[in-house]
Amino acid sequence: MTLLATIDDADAELTACLARVMAAVLKPGDVVALQGPVGAGKTHFARAFIRARQGEAAEEVPSPTFTLVQTYADPLGTEIWHADLYRLSHPDELAELGLDEAMREAVVLVEWPEHGDPLPDPLTVGLEPLADAPDLRRITLAGSEPHWGAMTRLPAIARLIHRAGWGSARVLPLAGDASSRRYFRLIRDDGHSAVLMDASPGTTAPYVAMTQWLRALDLHAPEILATDQAQGLLLIEDLGDDLVARVLEAQPDLSPRIYDRMTDLLVQLHGHEPPDFVLRLDGPELAHQVGLFAEYYPPAAGAPGKGTQVAEVIERLHAELSADMAPVIGLRDFHAENLVWRDDAPLGLLDFQDAVAVHPAYDLVSALQDARRDVAPQIEEAQIARYIAATGVDEAHFRAAYALLGAQRNLRIMGIFTRLAQREGKRRYLAMMPRVWAALQRDLAHPALAPLALALEGIPAPTPEVIEGIAG
């Protein structure tokens, strides 16, 4: 067993806050051993955990000292078992109570675990009151690293939430993305909510810098409520669940209006010089990034050695087709999954920490050639024309650059999806490959991209057979 993390001076609220954070991440089959002397706060911890899992359906959570075991329905899809083994007369009673089976199928919290047989690979939460401050306790988390290593993050998350005044909030996991970041929604009893971003330690500075830049322009990036940048944690404004992607699915008749707003937002953004702290996504960098395609997709699709000239051609075409326009800010992942619909209020912005200085067509391509959903051809054409009319750019040059940047993005996405499937087992993205490939073919149809089409000859489309081969 390895010591994973500690909190040296937790009061009752911080203890409960840690329990609520833990409740957001544990899954069926997880066993928590709650250790500590009488009055250390074991039942207090368990009660906060159970109520957080149950939310609005929360029941009373009595101590199981006399019943030995209490069970609770879990709206997240399992059961919660809360056991107190202090009065256990013989370890065989655990089997009679059904606790052995529960530890395979439910989330199980065990007080006084030392009074029974050893638990199967538990997360041990030790609570020890401080001698000179009995209202405070030292909390330790310990367990096997392969299973419980991610728990090292929980005390830092709890400390930030507690310090920011959100310690009593329920913590719920939110859907993540293809990155290593994860998100939680915090909901207080008064109905107010916030979002906790859990990123890698020391990686949040670009997000904070871009937030400040965007908000200075009255663009609606979420307000930052509290930070622990050393730990990679941000507490931010909750813009709600009305992602543009969901609104488009539920109300497709709004599509023209929504895409007009997206294009107008880009026009507004591009009216400002990009900040000097963002990466310049120029020809050489675009070529470097598209190298993912040649490295992963052709070999996986049964065409090893093909596509090796793609990066070189991308760089050359960028110099020929895109050098006439000054770079603008590009949010890079500007699409329906990262925008929040707020009716007549400005669109909410998400996931902009990887912003770059890039050709103006880059984010327009990102919005209109969306890997996750079909965008009607007439909408794509209308938005290209809308951008050209609003900015006065040269139409022929812009359309050629749009096709090139579309091809570069789509090739890179093909490489990323292949890598995610083969190296990380994330195969769900493979279903998007045919849509990405179809957009690539439309881009390659532009006469200026003939050299790129030639460099891609012999590379098969992502047919069902090819995708099955990639998935392994």
From TrEMBL:
Keyword set, alphabetical order: ATP-binding, Cytoplasm, Magnesium, Metal-binding, Nucleotide-binding, tRNA processing
Keyword Disulfide bond part of the UniProt annotation: no
Main location: cytoplasm
Record keyword Cytoplasm present: yes
Residue intervals of the Aminoglycoside phosphotransferase domain: 171-391
Location within or outside the cell: Cytoplasm
InterPro entries listed in its UniProt record: Aminoglycoside_PTrfase, Kinase-like_dom_sf, P-loop_NTPase, T6A_TsaE
Family per record: Belongs to the TsaE family.
Name used for this protein in its record: tRNA threonylcarbamoyladenosine biosynthesis protein TsaE
Organism of this sequence: Paracoccus methylovorus
Protein's gene: tsaE
